[in-house]
């Protein structure tokens, strides 16, 4: 019921925007635009130690999928070139890592990456219904992970009991880093000023390395350097 109400409200908002837009349309090209989208963020979980996995490191990295939102504000610099500032905020996904060494530990991580991107849009098609643009630019990323760990001590027989104690206090691992973003926009024109905007963003991030000195606290997480974020939303020109 709640989902149907939200869909209905969004549908009404779109119709209102289109109706108002039809009255405001002029022959002058609109130079500025803003948009909001729903995002699906997904990333893999490579092991922190790579192919040569040490026994005191987790066998898998922190990876997963989560929903989120993104917003943009931009403007045209030239008829086929625009520049936008885009912010992408996902929910946290949960991932579990285990280390089986002298003690057996299980770490629960709730992670998300916040993206702040300056993106150039090269617009290839200027049809009345569909417009295509290639997107690329630099990105500043805030990695943020809530981490807590539970332990299972090996008995004298060195047989796993499979029973872990309670998770310890939750700590926050936060780190700023940089990356590069690329992608594609597919604008479907609803009216003179309103587009439905399916998008794909591929982010490459400079992640923490275990070989760095000093080693960042979140290097053991094994975060993937690639994050893929398909999205769909509305863009309004003004």
Question: What does the model show?
Answer:
With 238 residues, the protein is mainly beta. It has a single domain (27-237), classed as Porin. Helices cover 10% and strands 56% of the residues. It has one helix and nine strands. The chain has an eight-stranded antiparallel beta barrel. It is elongated, with a radius of gyration of 23 Å. It starts with a helix and ends with a strand. Residues 1-11 and 13-28 have low confidence and may be disordered.
Please summarize what this structure is.
By secondary structure, this protein is mainly beta. The chain contains one helix and nine strands. The radius of gyration is 23 Å and the shape is elongated.
Total tally of structural domains? 1
Overall helicity: under 10%
Q: What structural class should be given to the helix and strand makeup?
A: mainly beta
Q: Ends: how far apart?
A: 34 Å
Q: Secondary structure elements and their pairing?
A:
Elements: H1 2-24, E1 32-43, E2 64-78, E3 81-90, E4 93-100, E5 103-123, E6 130-153, E7 171-189, E8 194-205, E9 226-237
Antiparallel strand pairs: 1-2, 1-9, 2-3, 3-5, 4-5, 5-6, 6-7, 7-8, 8-9
Note the main attributes of this structure.
mainly beta; 8-stranded antiparallel barrel; about 240 residues; Porin
């Amino acid at each position: 019921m709640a989902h149907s109400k939200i869909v209905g409200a969004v549908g009404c908002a779109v119709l209102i925007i289109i109706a108002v837009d039809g009255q405001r349309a002029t022959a002058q090209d609109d130079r500025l635009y803003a948009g909001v989208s729903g995002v699906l963020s997904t990333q893999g979980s490579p092991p922190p130690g790579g192919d040569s996995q040490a026994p005191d490191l987790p066998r898998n990295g922190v990876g997963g999928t989560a929903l989120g939102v993104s917003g943009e504000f931009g403007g045209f610099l030239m008829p086929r070139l625009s520049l936008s500032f885009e912010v992408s905020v996902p929910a946290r996904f949960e991932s579990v890592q285990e280390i089986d060494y002298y003690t057996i530990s299980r770490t629960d991580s709730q992670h998300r990456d916040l993206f702040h991107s300056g993106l150039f849009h090269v617009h290839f098609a200027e049809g009345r219904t569909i417009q295509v643009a290639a997107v690329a630019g630099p990105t500043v990323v805030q990695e943020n992970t809530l981490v807590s760990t539970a332990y299972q001590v090996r008995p004298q027989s060195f047989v796993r009991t499979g029973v872990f104690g309670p998770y310890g206090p939750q700590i926050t691992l936060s780190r700023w880093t940089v990356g590069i973003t690329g992608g594609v926009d597919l604008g479907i024109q609803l009216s003179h000023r309103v587009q439905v905007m399916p998008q794909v963003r591929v982010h490459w991030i400079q992640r923490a390395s275990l070989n760095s000195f000093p080693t960042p606290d979140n290097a053991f997480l094994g975060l993937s350097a690639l994050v893929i974020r398909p999205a769909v939303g509305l863009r309004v020109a003004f």
